[in-house]
């Protein structure tokens, strides 16, 4: 390792090293665009160990634990024991005063996953992210904290990386001096520590509608119960913010304006800041997953035993020693746990000197982080099992994202009727009966929570009437009930391919609330009368009773669209079609589907003409064996049937947003999507221009421009997919918000990707809690409309023709009706009946739903969160089952120390480092941005003393003998899963190795060998090496 563990910890804990320059900060690096935070390649917080992972069927919490305020045992560090590592936090009084003056800003703290010493925050109105560099400036904040920052003076601002906007990937690894044109020797003292690329497939940016999504909970949501409800003009007793400056807005705006002016004047400078207070602690503090650094602890204990023999007065080891937890998420710091506070089962194994404890995947909770401690104090709260087991990893993913996977509360289940429930007779009187209309669902073939259905009718005047019918979940989930509270806590369903964690009990989500065919179901329906141009001529919104005639899969719908299914084949030759219910025939369904397809194409074309943007990418499809273990994956794009459903769901969401925002301007739950990061967008434009690809990102032209590039690259689909991947990175997240919260900034309500001024979520109430809130608000608008007209009739104020006017839900909103005394009274009464949340409470619901939606994505990416993390896990498991997975890769970035590659099969990026490799030389030709790699004699004999060592050639390249070249890309390992095992027979392969010398240029295609790393000895990862052939291996 080069230094003792204790020495290494002294270096880690020394805050004076945090601002040290990167060892190779000046070498030119030609590349694809860098749309993520730039990395500094210095491993300041090295762990010296790997982790592990395995599992129990369900994780059990550890009762008790914690450090109870005890200070960290610094006698295990070399150096002074009680020096201050951090500045003290400001008082809340000082913070509030500074916020009002605009001297500080309240922001969200985000950490660079490639370098934990770099954190960033976004100040509203400032175009550039602000850097928080080093542990001292970060002042004990962790990923996800809401902090207060003080911006540094201009003289402390750093140089903006990639500020020229042409070479958009990292310009790391450049020597500070001695660089020259042509061949360039490498700096042999520079570090090549890689902070680890995540397994995250680089997903495309999707529009708001999708057929599946997932997510879940914290233990509590502030204020879901006991708050006042009223109409759009009411007050609330809840107070949702600790720091909410109501005065001094002018000073804040002036401060933001001054920052923007300075950034404009010094475009090559990045603003820096420091944390002065933590306002809201991240929930992730309570669920940090990692491994115990057992080997280091055993090494330390042996030293203590030797010292104890010499000095009998030393304290007992068990009373003072600690053990490290190394988080699997590189954004979090190492944690210190007193051994005496470990669970008994772990302490017993440590007493038995069982080193396999380090294979256990555990969760820890931060208890304290004093200004005298370089690392936070924590206690172990969960033990998941061995890290190499898939079940352990899944349980850890759910735990760290606070996904509630327990059974539903009995009190929640008691809110539901029995499974023999039928539509009550009175509902037929209060709703429009649509059971004789040809209505059907289109979902994934395995879906059970069917919450949307479609219909279409041709009208005599040449118009078509399209209907979207959404399950009326709000009929069953009443406000303030236990079921409502639990649904709000869960917030969203979580989908993980082989498992689903529902937001609502299965009795509701899969039975009485699901739009199953052949049974009567309650629905919210929206009808539009559309002309041939796709314009809405009229619309109707209301509660209905429907009976779906069949449950179609996307595959069935696609076959109908493609003409592979017609009435004759349905009746005579197709036995794989779903059952048809009622008096309808397949000719009715097929005709309806083809009509909807034509309308959806018109609506889609119209959206893109209006400036909508969709960055479409392929989805992962994993293949599982009979034991539910993934063994391979493919990439699959979406088809016309997906777009068909999406188009009408978007239209329904737009309509719902328009109605509720007009009827209740202070209490509408909407969804906004900000414009992309301008700087990153300009960098992407510059890259495309450099490579002869004309890109126009101006309003309305972005999508059309990408389509032209797609046509130009029709013979290079991989490169186009890479471009789409990078085009998504300037995009910001769409979020829920309360209309009353932004009533003075209506220009910020819009949805950039959809190019619409108003949007919400209405179409998935079985799996998203915000949709239930929107349903209640829509029901209140409909009822207010009815009350208003009833009051008008009773007071004899109805004018001729007014009887059929839909004043609140129709295309034309009658504002004079809404502001009249009758209108205000009707809206207030309806809001009170349906318990429409006040502005303050709705703001809390929006914020919580945003956090839960983000968490649910993480469970299926190890970010955005549950969904993607599970995808990464399945990918890792499938690669681990193969000794080697061979694939072509595209070179996205190139420099003297490493190259960045894109592996299309897995949709991931990886780095291959080739400096300081024994038996390998690298020549970087700066003038032509070309790299030449070649084999050479061993360097071990000429290696001089230095901070690192030459790595073995097989860490960088898998070199085979040409006589053995009959590899197969997906060969199964019967001898084990280790990446270093290459003794198995080599089967035939479609991927051919390259030979030395190897010349590489930007966008070159090269063969690589992929292998799974981590599991029982560290975080999950997939490594990449060059796939080479040589007779001299």
TrEMBL record:
In residue numbers, the region (Disordered) covers 1-24
A biological process term (GO) from this entry = polyuridylation-dependent mRNA catabolic process
- Residues annotated as binding Mg(2+): 443, 452
Site entry: Important for catalytic activity: 451
The cofactors required by this protein are: Mg(2+); Mn(2+)
What GO terms are given for molecular function? 3'-5'-RNA exonuclease activity; metal ion binding; RNA binding
InterPro entries membership: Dis3_CSD2, DIS3L2, NA-bd_OB-fold, RNase_II/R, RNase_II/R_CS, RNR_Ribonuclease
State the UniProt keywords alphabetically.
Cytoplasm, Exonuclease, Hydrolase, Magnesium, Manganese, Metal-binding, Nuclease, RNA-binding
Q: Where is the composition biased (Basic and acidic residues)?
A: 7-20
Major location, coarse class?
cytoplasm
Q: Where in the cell is it found?
A: Cytoplasm; Cytoplasm, P-body
- One cellular component (GO) term of this entry: P-body
Q: Say which enzyme class the record assigns.
A: hydrolase
According to the entry, every stretch annotated as the RNB domain falls at 431-784
**What EC number(s) does this enzyme carry?**
3.1.13.-
Q: Which family does it belong to?
A: Belongs to the RNR ribonuclease family. DIS3L2 subfamily.
Note the HAMAP family from the entry.
Answer: DIS3L2
Q: What does this protein do?
A: 3'-5'-exoribonuclease that specifically recognizes RNAs polyuridylated at their 3' end and mediates their degradation. Component of an exosome-independent RNA degradation pathway that mediates degradation of cytoplasmic mRNAs that have been deadenylated and subsequently uridylated at their 3'.
| Protein name per Swiss-Prot or TrEMBL | DIS3-like exonuclease 2
């Amino acid at each position: 390792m080069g230094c003792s563990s204790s020495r290494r910890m002294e270096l880690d804990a020394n805050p004076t090293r945090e601002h040290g320059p990167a060892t190779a900060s000046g070498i030119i690096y030609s590349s694809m665009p860098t749309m993520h935070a730039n990395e500094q390649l210095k491993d300041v917080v090295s762990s010296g160990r790997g982790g592990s992972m395995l599992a129990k069927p369900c994780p059990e919490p550890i009762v008790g634990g914690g450090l109870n305020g005890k200070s960290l045992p610094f006698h295990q560090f070399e150096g002074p024991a009680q020096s201050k590592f951090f500045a003290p936090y400001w008082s809340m009084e000082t913070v509030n005063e500074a916020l009002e003056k605009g001297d500080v800003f309240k922001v969200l703290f985000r950490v660079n996953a490639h370098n934990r010493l770099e954190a960033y925050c976004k100040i509203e109105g400032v175009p550039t992210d602000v850097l928080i560099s080093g542990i001292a400036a970060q002042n004990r904040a962790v990923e996800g904290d809401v902090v207060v920052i003080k911006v540094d003076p201009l003289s402390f601002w750093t140089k903006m990386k990639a500020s020229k906007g042409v070479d958009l990937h990292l310009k790391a690894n450049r020597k500070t001096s001695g660089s020259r044109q042509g061949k360039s020797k490498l700096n042999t003292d520079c570090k090549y520590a890689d902070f680890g690329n995540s397994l995250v497939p680089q997903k495309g940016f999707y529009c708001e509608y999708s057929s599946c999504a997932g997510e879940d909970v914290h233990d509590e949501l502030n204020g879901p119960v006991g708050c006042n409800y009223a109409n759009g003009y009411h007050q609330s007793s809840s107070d949702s913010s600790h720091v909410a400056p109501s005065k001094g807005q002018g000073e804040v705006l002036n401060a933001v304006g001054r920052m923007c002016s300075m950034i404009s004047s010094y475009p090559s400078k990045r603003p820096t800041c420091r944390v002065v207070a933590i306002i809201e602690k991240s929930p992730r503090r309570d669920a940090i997953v990692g491994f115990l650094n057992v080997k280091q602890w055993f090494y330390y204990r042996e030293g203590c035993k030797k010292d104890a023999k010499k000095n009998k007065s030393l304290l007992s080891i068990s009373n003072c020693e600690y053990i490290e937890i190394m988080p699997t998420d590189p954004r979090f710091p190492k944690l210190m746990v007193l051994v005496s506070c470990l669970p008994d089962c772990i302490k017993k194994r440590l007493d038995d000197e069982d080193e396999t404890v380090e294979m256990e995947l555990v969760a820890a909770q931060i208890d304290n982080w004093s200004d005298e401690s370089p690392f936070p104090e924590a206690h172990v709260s969960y033990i998941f099992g061995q890290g190499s087991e898939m079940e352990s990893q899944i349980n850890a993913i759910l735990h760290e994202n606070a996904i509630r996977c327990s059974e539903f509360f009995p009190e929640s289940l008691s809110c539901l009727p029995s499974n023999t429930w039928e539509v009550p007779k009175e509902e037929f009187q209060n709703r429009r009966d649509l059971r004789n209309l040809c209505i059907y669902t289109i979902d994934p073939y395995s879906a059970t929570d069917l919450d949307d259905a479609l219909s279409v009718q041709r009208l005599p005047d040449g118009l078509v009437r399209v209907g979207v019918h959404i399950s009326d979940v709000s009929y069953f989930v009443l406000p303030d009930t236990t079921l409502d509270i639990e649904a709000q806590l869960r917030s969203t369903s979580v989908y993980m391919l082989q498992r689903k964690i529902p937001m609502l009990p299965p009795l509701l989500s899969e039975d009485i609330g699901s739009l199953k065919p052949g049974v009567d179901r309650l629905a919210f329906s929206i009808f539009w009368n559309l002309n041939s141009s796709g314009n809405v001529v009229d619309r109707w919104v209301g509660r209905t009773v429907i009976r779906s005639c069949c449950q179609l899969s996307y595959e069935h719908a696609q076959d109908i669209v493609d003409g592979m299914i017609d009435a004759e084949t349905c009746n005579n030759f197709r036995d794989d079609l779903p059952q048809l219910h009622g008096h309808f025939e397949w000719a009715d369904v097929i005709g309806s589907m083809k009509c909807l397809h034509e309308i959806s194409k018109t609506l889609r074309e119209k959206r893109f003409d209006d400036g909508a943007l969709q960055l479409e990418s392929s989805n992962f499809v994993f293949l599982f064996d009979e034991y539910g273990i993934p063994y391979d994956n493919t990439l699959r794009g979406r088809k016309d049937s997906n777009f068909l459903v999406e188009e009408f769901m978007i239209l329904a969401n737009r309509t719902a947003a328009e109605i509720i925002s007009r009827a209740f301007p202070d209490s509408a739950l909407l969804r906004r999507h900000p414009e992309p990061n301008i700087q990153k967008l300009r960098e992407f434009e510059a890259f495309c221009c450099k490579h002869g690809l004309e890109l126009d990102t101006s309003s309305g032209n972005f999508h059309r421009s990408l389509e032209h590039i797609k046509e130009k690259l029709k013979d290079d689909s991989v490169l186009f997919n890479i471009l789409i991947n990078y085009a998504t990175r300037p995009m910001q997240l769409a979020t829920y918000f309360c209309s009353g919260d932004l009533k003075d900034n209506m220009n910020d309500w819009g949805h950039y990707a959809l190019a619409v001024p108003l949007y919400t979520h209405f179409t998935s109430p079985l799996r998203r809690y915000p949709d239930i809130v929107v349903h209640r608000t829509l029901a209140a608008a409909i009822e207010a409309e009815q009350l208003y007209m009833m009051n008008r009739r009773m007071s004899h104020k109805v004018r001729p023709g007014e009887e059929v006017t839909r004043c609140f839900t129709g295309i034309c909103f009658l504002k004079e009706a809404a502001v009249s005394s009758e209108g205000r009274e009707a809206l207030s009464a309806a809001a009170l009946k349906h318990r429409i949340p006040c502005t303050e409470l709705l703001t809390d619901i929006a914020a919580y739903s945003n956090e839960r939606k983000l968490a649910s994505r993480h469970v299926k990416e190890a970010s955005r969160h549950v969904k993607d993390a599970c995808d990464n896990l399945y990918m890792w498991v499938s690669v681990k089952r193969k000794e080697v997975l061979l694939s072509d890769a595209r070179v996205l970035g190139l420099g003297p120390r490493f190259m960045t590659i894109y592996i299309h099969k897995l949709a991931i990026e990886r780095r291959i480092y080739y400096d300081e490799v024994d038996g390998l030389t690298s020549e970087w030709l700066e003038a032509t941005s070309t790299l030449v790699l070649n084999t050479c004699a061993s360097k071990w004999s000429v290696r001089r003393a230095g901070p690192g060592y030459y790595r073995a050639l097989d860490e960088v390249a898998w070199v085979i003998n040409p006589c053995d070249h009959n590899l197969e890309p997906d060969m199964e390992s019967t001898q084990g899963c280790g990446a270093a095992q290459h003794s198995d027979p080599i089967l035939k392969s479609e991927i051919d190795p390259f030979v030395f010398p190897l010349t590489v240029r930007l966008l070159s295609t090269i063969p690589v060998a992929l292998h799974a790393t981590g599991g029982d000895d560290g975080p999950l990862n997939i490594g990449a090496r060059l796939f080479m052939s040589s007779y001299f291996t």
